[in-house]
């Protein structure tokens, strides 16, 4: 009987461990979600996944992003992907991404930081 209890506990621990994403996977998913939002001009998702240091207020960030989309500035991005995701420390990653904008391939590196509200892509820094 004791053997079955131990096996049951081990199986439970194994299943819990397998069902939780690693931090790297969580950050990669966040960055991919952000990139998809950029490609599709989904302002709400861009604001959700990113902290823009130019706009500490989320409402202001959303308003400015909507204005940019309305002017057609962001609509030329046709492809994005993560090139490299590097762990800096326990609360920060560096995500190098590739973007195709008006047919031109450009690489950017974004910090990704763990905040009180979870992981966020940090945008708005000097490129």
UniProtKB/TrEMBL annotation:
<feature type="signal peptide">
    <location>
        <begin position="1"/>
        <end position="22"/>
    </location>
</feature>
<protein>
    <recommendedName>
        <fullName>DUF4878 domain-containing protein</fullName>
    </recommendedName>
</protein>
<keyword id="KW-0732">Signal</keyword>
